[in-house]
Amino acid sequence: MAVATEPLETMSGRGQYRALALRRIAMICALLVALCFSLSVDMALGPANYTLKEVLASLFNAESVGDQLRVVIWDIRMPIALMAITVGASLSLAGAQMQTILANPLASPFTLGISAAAGFGAALGLVGGVAIFPAAVQYMIPINAFLMAMAAALFIHFASTMRGVTVETIVLLGIALVFTFNALLSLLEYLASEQALAAVVFWTMGSLTKATWPKVWITGAVLVVAIPVFARQAWALTALRLGEDKAASLGINVRRLRLHTMLTVSLLAAIPVSFVGTIGFVGLVGPHIARMLVGEDQRFFLPASVICGALLLSTTSVVSKVLIPGAILPIGVITALVGVPFFFVLIFTNRRRAW
Amino acid sequence: MVALALKGLGAKYGRHTVLSDVNTDIMAGGGMTAVIGPNAAGKSTLFKRISGLASGPGTVLLSDTLRGQETICYMPQDTGANAVLTVYESVLLASKQGSGWRVSDGELNEIDQTLKALRIEDLAFRGLGELSGGQRQLVSIAQALIRKPEVLLMDEPTSALDLFRQIEVLSFMKALAAKSGMSVLIALHDLNHALRYCENTIVIADGAMAASGPTNDVITADMLREVYRVEARVEACSLGKAIVIVDHSIV
To answer: Which residues of A touch B129 (CB under 8 A)?
Structure first.
C-alpha cells in the first residue's frame, strides 16, 4: 500500500499547480475575449450607431459593406478604439513594472510625476507657443509632452542609480515631481489667455479623439518592443517581489534589472501620455486588478496587466459614448468613474490579498 | 562534495571596510559550520562576501576549482516581503531563475519533494502573505534547497521558529548535509544549537574574525566574555554534551 500512495502524494502538488496555471490561462483568455467584445462595441457606437454584425463585416469582409461604413469604421473609429487599447495597455504595463521594481503599490506613471511633466510640456506649447524641439512645430504639443515626460522619467532613473537612494526615496522624488509640475502648470494656467486655458484644461483631462493611425502604430510599436523585454525577465521580475536581498541571492543583478526596467517603463509611459493627455487611473489600478485575478507570477501577471489596462480604457471609451449620446466625454475623467466602482467590488469581494 | 576555506576574506561598501581578515581551515563538505557573533558584527556581510554579493579582498577557496559561484547559495534573513504568490510558486521561482517559461513535471516533482521533506506541503497553495514568521523561514529554506547548492549559507534561519521547529530544521539540515555532502554555514544566535549541531564555528565580532575552529574549542567562557560581554559557563549536561549557561551580562 505504501508503494501505491507515494506517487499519488508527490503528484498532488504538481497537479494542483497545473490546475492553478490553467485557471490563470483561462482568466487571461476570458479577459482577451472581453477585450475583443469591448473593442467591437466601441467601434459600433458613435453619432451613427451600427450593429456588431456590421462592424465585424467591415473588419473581416470590407468589400461586403458600403463605403460610408468602411470609412467610418476604418478611418475614424478604429484608430480611436485601438488607441484606447494601446494606451491602456502601455500605461497599465508601465504601472505594473513600476510597482514591481519599486515594491510600492502606489507607483504608476501618474504618481511618479511622468504624467504631470507631460502636462506641463503640453501647456508650454498651448499657452506660450514654446516648442522644446523647434524642428517640428506642427507636432509641438505631443513632442513637448513627450520630452518633458522623458526628462522626468530619466531624472527618476538617474536618481535611482545614485548611491544610497532607496526605492522609498524614488517614490518620494516622484511625488515631489508631481507637486513641482502641477505648480508650474497652475502658474501657466494663471498666465494663459481664456482660449489657451481651455485647451490646457481639455488636454490635462485626457482625450482619445485626436487619435490617428500613426499615433496608434507608434504606441503599439513601443508596446510590442517592451513586452518581450519584460517577458525575458519574467522570473527575475517576479523574484524582485520577494525582496531585494532574496532576489540578489537568486543570482539576479537587482540594480541592473531595476535600471533597464525603469528605462523601458519611461518610454511606455511617456509616449501614450504625449498623445492622449493625462489618464491617471489606468496605470495605477490596471496592475492591481491583474494582480488580484492572476497573482504576481509575471508569466501571467504581465499579459494580464496589459489586457486589464486595455480593457479598462476600452470599456471607458464605450461608457463615455453611452453616458451622454452624441457627446464624447474626456476619457481621463470617465476612467476613474468607471474603474473605481469595479476596483472597489474586486477589493471587497476578493478573498486574496491585493498587495 | 565541495570543501570550503576562506583566506584573508574582507568586505567593503564603497570605501568603508566592514569586514576584514576572515581565515578558516578547510571546512569539509557534509558538515555544518556555525557563524556566531553579536548583532551587526558582520555575519550577514561575511555570507554576502562568500556568495559574491559583496566585494572585498581575500579568496573563497572551493576544493573543486571547476565549480564557480553558482554552487554557493545564500539564504538571506527573511525581510517579510509579501508578494501575491503562493508558497509553491515562490519555490518554483527560485528553481527557475535564468531559464525559460516552461515548467516540466520533473521540476514540479522536485518542489513537491522539497516541501514534503520540510513538512510544509500543506502550505503549498497558501499565499506568502498569510504565513507566520516561522512558516516563512521554512519556505526560505525550501527556496534555497531547491537550487541544490553545494555550499549553503543560511542567515539566522531559525530566528522566527518555535523550539520544536528549530530542532526539527537543524536536525534536518545536519542530516541533509551529511547525506548530500553539502557544506552548510549557518548564522546562529543560540550557542547551544551551535554546540549541538555544528562541527566548526567562526566567531565574528566588530567586523573581524575573533576565533575559528572546532565548536567545542571556540565556544569558551573567555570568548563569551570578550565577544558577547557575558559571564557564562560551558558545562557538560546530564547527557555529557557541552552547554552554555549564562550567569549575567558584564556592565
So the answer is: 353
Output the average pLDDT for chain A. 87
Residue A132 has pLDDT above 90, yes or no: no
A189 conformational bin, left if phi > 0, alpha if psi -120 to 50, beta if neither: alpha
Measured CA to CA, the distance from residue A149 to residue A273 in angstroms comes to 8
CB contacts of B98 in chain A (<8 Å) are 235, 251
Task: Give residue-wise pLDDT tens across range A196-205.
Answer: 999 888 888 8
Over pLDDT 70: what percentage of chain A? Answer: 95
Q: So what CATH class is B4-219?
A: alpha beta
Please give the average per-residue pLDDT across B176-193, as a whole number: 93
* Beta carbons of B98 and A251 less than 8 Å apart: yes
Bridging pattern class, strands B242-249 and B230-236:
antiparallel
A163, A236, A249: residue with CB nearest B75: A249
Q: What's the DSSP call for residue A325?
A: T
What's the CA gap between A89 and A219, in Å, rounded?
10
* Residues in chain B within 8 Å Cβ distance of A14: 105, 108-109, 111-112
B127 vs A244, A252, A352: nearest CB: A352
Q: Which residues of chain B are in CATH 3.40.50.300 domains?
A: 4-219
pLDDT band at residue B68 under the 50/70/90 scheme:
low
> Strand pairing of B4-7 and B59-62?
antiparallel
Question: pLDDT band for position A351 (50/70/90)?
Answer: low
Give the residue from chain B lying closest to A235, CA to CA.
B97
Report the pLDDT averaged over residues B45-52.
92
Closest to A145 (Cα-Cα) out of A271, A264, A262: A271
* DSSP symbols for A67-128: HHHHHIIIIIIHHHHHHHHHHHHHHHHHHHHHHHHHT-TT-STTTTTHHHHHHHHHHHHHHH
Residue B190 is classified by DSSP as -
